[in-house]
């Protein structure tokens, strides 16, 4: 039975140049129809889950929704699912797209965690990213959240921004820590095809910092946040003890979850499925009692093992050697070279990427999967 839920809200004030998530400009009338469609999809999942342990409402910018929209969504969730007494309900929010009334409404409806997309405390860097807020807006948002009585909030930050320096990144990290969040995510800016950023980087209109500068930024985040009592529990994520994101951990542990909304993904019973990313079609289908699912695939044994490695090695604790052997993977035998190079290590029954290898984690994981695949299909099998 599934006990995790993701809800996608595809509305923003405007799309940032680096964003490749499904979103469109906010329109109140359209948002109302979309929420009604979401509630219909939630009803199709009725009685198919155990008590929900975590709900994550992402986007887009969910904090743009009206209080009436949140109330409607909350009522639909409660009629479709049971909630664990300790359920974690997260909503993504952006400075400049939230006010005190919205914060109070969300908290009154059971939201107990916010993920705030600050990205930087440098106004020039925010302009480069196309963000609608300033650093003072970000400070106001966090102070308003704290004044409303919410302690459990996360801050998202970006490094590797064109024009960003190690010093400006140090200041952003320091200012973030000073706001006393329970969780901080630090993501390297990546120019994805289809975004406004990609052609600007391609043409030289904007220039990313040198690779050694980016590595220095990442190292500083690890050092400073570690000294500030944050646990580096996943490649890009840091949390005070006990405040790791349940939604994120479930994903990296290959736990099952329902995804509702346009473009949302689900993972249930060994099948990964995806809803249509056409928002008009999503609404129309649900208004007519038609499933919004656009595609699905049942994972093979090889798919499951690749995911086990790709996702598991992102966690700082790494992969259990016992569980790996249970899945037919001789991790210890195939990581010898990486261990000798100091890029991986064995610690308390787990194989994990070292601090030295962390910045190269994607390459190391790819290298390990390719090596396992090269020794024959029998080495990539799951029981």
Written account of the structure:
The protein is α/β, with parallel strands linked by helices and 383 residues long. The chain has 2 domains: 2-252, Aldolase class I (TIM Barrel); 301-379, Orthogonal Bundle (Arc Repressor Mutant, subunit A), CATH 1.10.10.920. The protein has 16 helices and 17 strands. The strands form 4 sheets. A 9-stranded mixed beta sheet has the order 9-10-8-7-6-5-4-1-11, sandwiched between helices. It has a 3-stranded antiparallel beta sheet with strand order 12-13-14, with no helix packed on it. Strands 15-17-16 form a 3-stranded antiparallel beta sheet. The protein is globular, with a radius of gyration of 21 Å.
The main pleated sheet reads as: 9 strands, mixed
Unreliable stretches, pLDDT < 50, 5 or more residues? 377-383
Number of helices: 16
Shape verdict: globular
Approximately how much beta-strand content do the residues carry? Answer: 15-25%
The third-level CATH topology of the largest domain is TIM Barrel
The structural domain count equals: 2
């Amino acid at each position: 039975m599934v006990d995790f839920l993701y809800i996608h809200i595809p509305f923003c004030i405007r799309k940032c140049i680096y964003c490749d998530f499904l979103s469109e400009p906010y329109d109140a009338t359209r948002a109302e129809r979309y929420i009604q469609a979401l509630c219909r999809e939630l009803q199709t999942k009725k009685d198919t889950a155990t008590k929900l342990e975590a709900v994550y409402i992402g986007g887009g910018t969910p904090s743009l929704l009206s209080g009436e929209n949140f109330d409607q969504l909350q009522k639909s969730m409660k009629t479709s699912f049971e909630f664990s007494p300790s359920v974690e309900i997260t909503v993504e929010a952006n400075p400049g797209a939230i006010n005190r009334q919205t914060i109070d409404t969300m908290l009154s409806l059971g939201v107990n965690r916010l993920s705030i997309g600050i990205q930087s405390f440098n106004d020039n860097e925010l302009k480069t990213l196309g963000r609608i807020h300033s650093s003072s807006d970000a400070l106001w948002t966090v102070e308003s959240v704290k004044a409303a009585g919410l302690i459990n909030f996360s801050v998202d930050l970006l490094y590797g921004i064109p024009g960003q320096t190690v010093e400006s990144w140090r200041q952003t990290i320091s200012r973030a820590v000073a706001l006393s969040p329970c969780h901080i995510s630090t993501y390297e800016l990546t120019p994805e095809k289809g975004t406004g950023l990609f052609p600007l980087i391609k043409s030289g209109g904007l220039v990313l910092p040198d690779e050694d500068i980016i590595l220095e930024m990442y190292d500083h985040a690890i050092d400073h946040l570690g000294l500030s009592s944050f646990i580096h529990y996943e490649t890009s994520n840091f949390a005070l003890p006990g405040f790791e994101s349940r939604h994120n951990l479930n994903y990296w542990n290959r736990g099952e979850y329902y995804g509702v909304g346009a473009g949302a993904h689900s993972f249930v019973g060994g099948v990964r499925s995806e809803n249509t990313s056409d928002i008009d079609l999503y609404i129309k289908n649900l208004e007519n009692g038609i499933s919004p699912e656009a595609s699905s695939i049942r994972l093979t044994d090889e798919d499951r093992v690749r995911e086990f490695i790709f996702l598991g090695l992102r966690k700082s604790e790494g992969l259990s050697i016992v569980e790996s052997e249970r899945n037919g993977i001789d991790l210890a035998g195939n990581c010898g070279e990486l261990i000798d190079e100091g890029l991986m290590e064995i610690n308390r029954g787990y194989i994990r990427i070292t601090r030295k290898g962390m910045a190269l984690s994607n390459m190391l994981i790819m290298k390990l999967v390719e090596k396992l695949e090269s020794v024959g299909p029998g080495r990539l099998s799951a029981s």
